[in-house]
Design brief:
It is built from two helices and twelve strands. The protein is an alpha+beta fold and about 160 residues long. Strands 1, 2, 4, 5, 6 and 10 form a six-stranded mixed beta sheet that branches.
């Protein structure tokens, strides 16, 4: 096979991937990380949340913490810390979205969006339950004090 044909074949594959993604309604905005906030409450606009997880970094007293928010298939907004309850000490116990699931970057476990904020314990994203946040029609607010309590599980965390 000549080089020119191989090059065209690669371009065709890339074009089909883009067309296929658009045709099936999958967004190219997977793993969107918002700008970081420092040493204050985290305010998440509900209008920003879709079926694609959005990641919100917060710097609390020099420790980077990250919250994820996603709309579950039932339409509810779910929040959790972007760290695995089992793998956090590895430094790689964080999640990235692949298709319609979250995947732990340390152990490879996969979680449906419907599991976020529901399951506690084991190898799951650390949930942020309703008692730990304030929800209005427009925003979700997670207090700085509550975020500060999570610093220990992010001490070795290294998102890459």
């Amino acid at each position: 096979m000549n080089k020119r044909f191989r090059g065209n074949k690669l371009i065709l594959r890339a074009a089909l991937l883009v067309i296929g993604t658009a045709a099936f309604g999958q967004s190219s905005q997977l793993n969107m990380v918002k700008p970081a906030v420092s040493d204050r409450d985290l305010v998440i606009r509900i209008s920003e949340i879709t079926e694609n997880a959005v990641f919100y970094p917060v710097d609390i007293e020099g420790t980077r913490i990250e919250v994820l928010a996603v709309k579950a298939p039932d339409g509810t907004i779910r929040t959790a810390f972007n760290t695995c309850q089992v793998c956090y000490a590895s430094g790689r116990g964080f999640y990235k979205q692949q298709g319609t699931v979250l995947v732990c970057q340390n152990c490879g476990n996969r979680f449906r969006m419907s599991q976020v904020e529901v399951r506690s314990g084991g190898c799951n994203p650390v949930p942020i339950f309703p008692r730990n946040k304030t929800v209005t029609d427009a925003d979700i607010t997670i207090s700085r004090d509550f975020l500060k309590e999570a610093k220990a599980v992010f001490a070795r965390w290294r998102r890459s």
